[in-house]
Amino acid sequence: MLLKRIYLIVYFVYFIIYLIDKALSYDLVINNDEEVLFDLAENVNILLRSYNVQILLIDDYYKLPQHGRNLFNIQNNLTFHSENGTIFDFQSTETTNLYLNIIAGAVDKKITFRNITFYNYDGFTTELSAATHFTTTDKTNRYTVEFDNCTFKNNKKITFYTHVSLKLEFGNVTFDHCNFTNIYGDSEYGGSIVYSDKNYGNKLVFVDSIFNNNIVNYNIPLFNLYESSLSIINTKFLNCLSYYGYIVSFRTLSNSSYSQFKVTIEDSEFSNINSLMEGKNNIISIKNTKFSNITSISSIPVIMNALYSNVSIVDSVFSNIVSHKSSLFMDQGKLIFMNTTFSDIITNSKTMINFMYNSVIIEDCEFKNILCNGDSDNSSLIIFDSGENSNTFDIKNVIIENCKTNGDMITINGNKPIIKMFNVKIDKIHSYGALINNQSIDANISIDSSVITNNENINKWKCGLITNYNSTFFNVENSIFKNNNVKNNGGSLCFMNYNKLSININTTVFENNSALNGGVIYFNEKVRDVNINDKYSLKLENIIFKSNNANYFGGAIYSDFNISYLELSTLKNVSFIDNHAYAGGAIYISNADNTHFNLNNKSLIEYKNNVAISHGNNFATSPYYVKYINENNKKFDIMSGMTFPFEFILYDKFNQTVTDLYKYYSNIALNIKSVSSNCKIHGNICNFSKGQCELNHFKIYTTNPTTVDFQLALLENNDFNVKFDLENISFKINDCKSGQIKIVGKNGFYQCEDPICNSNCPVSSGRALCLKSSNITNINNVLYNKCQCVNGWKGKDCHVMDYSPLKFKYNTIITTPIILIILSVMIFNYLNRHVKIIEDTGYIKLQMVLFGLLLFYISCNFNVFHSFFSCSLNILLRHCGVLLIYILSLIYTLTGCELGVRKGELQLYLNVKSYERHNNIELFYEQNPIASTILNEKMLLNIENELNQIQNKNQENKSSIHQFPKKKYNLSKYSLFKKKTEDNNDIKSLNKLVSNIHSLFTELIILYTLFLLVIAGSIIYYKTKDDIYVQEYDGKWIYKCPLQELNFIFNCSEFIIIIYLTAKVTKVWNYVYIFKCLKNILYISIIWLSFGPLINIITYLSFMNNNNLYNICNSIINELCYFIILILYTYEKIYYIISKKGNDFKYYFNSVSIEKCLEHNSYSCGCNKEANGEEEIVNNYLSFYKFCSKFIQFSDGKFKYVRKNSKNTMKFII
């Protein structure tokens, strides 16, 4: 309720004021009547004494009187109001004006023009000339002039003018929603639109207005203001130009304390204008304003020239600007740019923006598509000169991209400037210089969280993208340098001519940057004022150098540090990956004495896939020392005039050969200087090529045999302080050899020459020797020397190969009788094939062994050094025969291993529990009366059963187990002695034996077949190759068979398998129920192992360059070895057949008599016992041997393969 009462009181007060104002106001309606207009000012002045007057203009058009009596004395508020937009036509006369004079004592009065067009003013007087004149005679007046929705068109000037000696404070003129068109000015007055002279404290405001097509051809600005305030809000300046060059001339005293005299521009647009403002000591604020379509050919700044002013530009745009001679802003002023964009700008001046002697802030700004096309190497985007006061250049959240400069993009000058770059993106800059060229002294530069990519410095004489001259404190963190290219050195950073240097780079990536030297960083210390207090500090941590490239040196870093000035250096967690350079794929140190880093510390530095063409894939230095290739020899024996080749290798500090494929170090030349004077030298200078210096024509001439000392040195024109590991060399000059010719010159120096022969003598090819004449001395002439062929060559010009004679006939003499013996034995075996000793041991197997021996001896008649045909037959027949002998011997051995019984085991069981065995034998006879006539068979059967029982008991008694060795199938072999077994376990065990032996036959035949295929395929393959001839020990030529390597492999393989045979046959030495020939096979394997393939291996490794010795050793020893094998395989059979004992198994089969001695109640007491039944047991065993060994049978006139499944022991009946 109280609040409503308050509202009512307020409304009532306002209503009273309104009534009072109405009571004090007077509305005057006038029309376009000449007499009315003539006396208008006088009539209105009378009313103004008592009332606020509002002149209502009801007509659309009014011609102002020309008599000059339009003087209004303002004592109260005066308003010119038109509803329809009245036109004031000044009729283009000199005297038609509006004069408004504020009377002294009239305070806070207001003059208003509403909806009026000021048209056709062209007046001129010697006093003052303007469409409207505002004057006052009292400095205390605080008047206000408002132009509301007015238009000024085709006028010489619109003036806010005072001309008094005293100051006027706080006068205000406001243009709201006004249009200014074709205001062309007057040469006699200082301003075309507003002229405020000799006064201060005025406020000029333009709101929502438009200035369009105002062209002033006089040397005056549009606004000429003196210590006033200017506000331009939401206003457009379009096509506003003045010959004066500025839109606003804003003058303020340098010692003015009136901080209220500001220029404020907000939400406005300037297009196709002159420079916006000139002045000094101003406070200027520009916000949300656009400057565009501006072309300047003047030398004054394009946007403003307000020296020593504080300028703040926020949320604004500068675009489509062309400057032919000047920068955008004055050089001396405090400027702040916030969230401002500069785009599509072309300038031919020295710089687009020049900052001098003041700190600068550029934040959240963008610079795009800018072309700085001034003088070569002297046109920049920004120049910052800190002066002597250590000013700050602060760049934060700034994007600079797609710009081109004909010089350095940003140039920094002055003393101790502070450069701060945070979150700056510099992308796609094409500059004829660095992106940042720091030429200041003791600069402090910080780059943080910035991205510098895709930039190019095309100036071949300027280093780096960020270049630092003089002393610098440089810090980079959390930044990326990528895809940058520099035509000079330093693909990203360059440090030149420094006295003090402190560098800290942390958590930064350098990738795919390139330069001539130092793909990323280039250090060059060429000029230095020596001061022991000036030190270097270098700290690199958490950095990745990846895929950077240097055309010459240092794929990532090039360093010319002077280590004596390095105070602190740290490399930690630094990775060099896929960097490339000519030398130093990652790091190159030009001053080899200054290897100040532990570059090989893998815990701190990672190197991966860096590549250098010359030397140092990871790190390298300049050439450091020269090393003689034969460093252990400092004294040499040569002859005078003899060519003595020297070879030296050039190394860097890290002991890497300086290969130098492209000859960048070609100026390093080696010179061997003589310390003595009694000699003459030739060919003592050489340049390094591919890291080597070869003195291939070095010669020393002396008068007599003597000793000469030399010193190694480099020619004086090299730029490297290269050292030598061997500085002095001594030569002992000997007299000429007997085969040489001594040539003595006129000066007494002699030389030893090898004899020379005519060109037809093939000395150079090594086929002949040139021998000196025995009668002529001191002359080396083809007429006196003799050409003599060396061993291996013959003919007139030594072009015919001299082949080594093949002494091989003796081999045929030796092998022929042996071959006949083998054939005779084979015939003998055939005739006696039904004799038991041949039939039971295997007639086919015996004949196959003999056939293998026959193949071996036939192979001995073919010389491996004669031809490919002879060599291939020798190797084929030899190894087919040897392998056949081996397979048959292995069959005998492995069959014995499977079917034989260890004698010790049998005797052990025969003496265990004799009583129980006897009872078992009697029980067996009672249960098996049909077999009672064969005692031995039944005893063996009971022994088998007894052994089975013992085994079962031994499973419960561990002590018995240790006394009886187990053997696979040994408890089932005695089932062979049953007429017909019904024990399934026995049948399974016997089938397993049969299966193993059958598999053995099958595997051996398959292996033999594979061998034949391998050797046949090898022969076919090598047959297509060209014949190769090599020289033997005596120089004569011999055929080299390409199968010899294969022959060597076969010999090694045979040696290994014979070792296996020896081990197996040794195992059955104490077996019973095996063929006695197995003992002979043991002897055979030992002889075979000693004199068979082993001899072939030894002769291959020792005598391949002597065919006769090779053949003799192989033939004599091998033929003797295999002849002994022949004897051991056949002599017993031949002897027992001739002596009529060939059918008695005791002479070829090893068995035991196991009858019980009744006297001692023992089976192994040694007494003579009757061996009843032993023959039948052996026959049964032999039958089982034959059964297991049956692999191919002859039936119905055909050979048939016996399958393993068809061999069923159930069908085997003794």
Short characterization:
By secondary structure, the chain is α/β, with parallel strands linked by helices.
Textual characterization of the structure:
By secondary structure, the chain is an alpha/beta fold. The chain has a 28-stranded parallel barrel. A ten-stranded parallel sheet has the order 30-33-36-39-43-47-50-53-56-59, with no helix packed on it. Strands 13-16-19-22-25 form a five-stranded parallel sheet, with no helix packed on it. Strand 83 (1192-1195) and strand 84 form a beta hairpin. The chain is elongated. Mean pLDDT is 78; it is low at 160-169, 912-982 and 1208-1214.
- Helix run count: 17
Content-based structural category: alpha/beta
Regions with little confidence, pLDDT below 50 for 5+ residues: 160-169, 912-982, 1208-1214
The coarse silhouette is elongated
- Average pLDDT works out at 78
Task: Report the strand count.
Answer: 84
CATH topology of one domain: Rhopdopsin 7-helix transmembrane proteins
